[in-house]
Design a protein that fits this description.
346 residues; 6-stranded mixed beta sheet; alpha/beta; disordered N terminus; 8-stranded mixed beta sheet
Length: 346
């Protein structure tokens, strides 16, 4: 009897300690000081780097044309045109380009030419103190998710999930980009299209998984990269945050697997809310033996007790919004909007 009471008390004590430790960790993460870089101005010098996969000459020319159209000057990373199998140069070369871009006093922004694969290989070797001492705009998406999360975690620098330099820049993408990075607007409302046909088809069609609204700091990125970081020193915390997630080219069962990994390995269930982007090319190849993508997303996310909606314009698509990591935002799952409550630049 006494032993039973002892273990009951000991169990409660251990549980209280674990909860206290978790609370302290979450509180420290929520209240950290975020450092905003200066806004992007016309005439600024931008370092163009390829920290992941190699870029074709055609895509590189498109990137250079995009930056010129924005009135920006370009400094090319030394390994920008390199190729090492499926990588844009060796790890050492790509890492050197990243470090040089932040160290160069003439450079005001660092822009990834593309995503691909290879950034997670660099994370343990990055000089985060160098980045902390030289805060600059850092822009990209896809595999660049890993750099956003690692830099934010290690330095507190606000970085930007937005188009890579070789992306398409239709009118709405350019409007979002300028409204966040060049001439910041706050509050800034980003809405999912009311009809997917307004853009480029069914994959843009928005729907609500769980109604409600929530406020929190922004984090997220590409689903595959978020899953790949789980269990590493760079695993993100989603607790009390607005989490934005997108994916490309994965069948519904693979999306299920990736989301299940996040739900089991991270604190995604404790997010304030989830905003899903456009999951391009993620329809089932054999519909007879598969859930649809919407059904898969509902199956994994609609029972979390937090607001969730699909279809905000971002991801591996031409129509993209730009998000500042770490900044306060508000989501409305029924209205299918995300409102940036503070600027990410000074």
């Amino acid at each position: 009897m006494y032993r039973r009471h002892f273990f009951q008390k000991a169990g409660l004590s251990v549980l209280a300690s674990l909860l206290a430790m978790h609370k302290v960790k979450a509180s420290a993460d929520d209240t950290r000081a975020w450092h905003k870089p200066p806004r992007l101005r016309e005439g600024a010098t931008v370092a163009l780097i390829a920290p992941a996969s190699p870029v074709s000459e055609e895509k590189l020319e498109k990137a250079l044309s995009n930056l010129a159209a924005l009135g920006l000057k370009v400094k090319e990373g030394a390994s920008l045109r390199a190729r090492h199998g499926y990588l844009a140069g060796t790890d050492e070369a790509r890492l050197a380009d990243l470090h040089q871009a932040f160290a160069d006093p003439e450079v005001e922004a660092v822009w990834c030419v593309r995503g691909g694969y290879g950034i997670t290989r660099l994370l343990p070797y990055i000089n985060y103190q160098l980045i902390r001492k030289n805060p600059k705009l850092f822009i990209g998406y896809s595999d660049v998710t890993a750099l956003h999360l690692a830099i934010g975690q290690k330095t507190g620098l606000t970085t930007f999930h937005g188009p890579v330099a070789a992306s398409d820049f239709p009118e709405n993408t350019l409007m979002h980009f300028k409204s966040v990075l060049m001439n910041p607007v706050t509050p800034y409302v980003i809405a999912a299209p009311s009809d997917g046909a307004e853009l480029q088809g069914e994959e843009y069609r928005a729907f609500t998984l769980s109604p409600g609204s929530a406020t929190g700091r922004l984090t997220g990125g590409n689903l595959s990269l978020l899953s790949a970081l789980a269990g590493t020193p760079f695993e993100p915390s989603f607790r009390r945050k607005i989490v934005f997630i997108e994916e490309v080219g994965e069948q519904p069962y693979r999306v299920d697997r990736l989301l299940t990994q996040l739900l089991q390995a991270t604190d995604l269930k404790q997010a304030a809310g989830i905003v899903l982007g456009v999951f391009a090319d993620c329809a089932a190849k054999n519909p007879e033996f598969s859930l649809t993508l919407p059904d898969t997303l509902r199956d994994r996310l609609s029972s979390l007790g937090i607001p969730v909606f699909y279809g905000l314009p971002f991801g591996h698509v031409a129509h993209q919004a730009t998000f500042p990591y770490g900044m306060q935002a508000e989501m409305d799952a029924e209205g299918r909007t995300l409102t940036l409550l503070e600027a990410g630049v000074d």
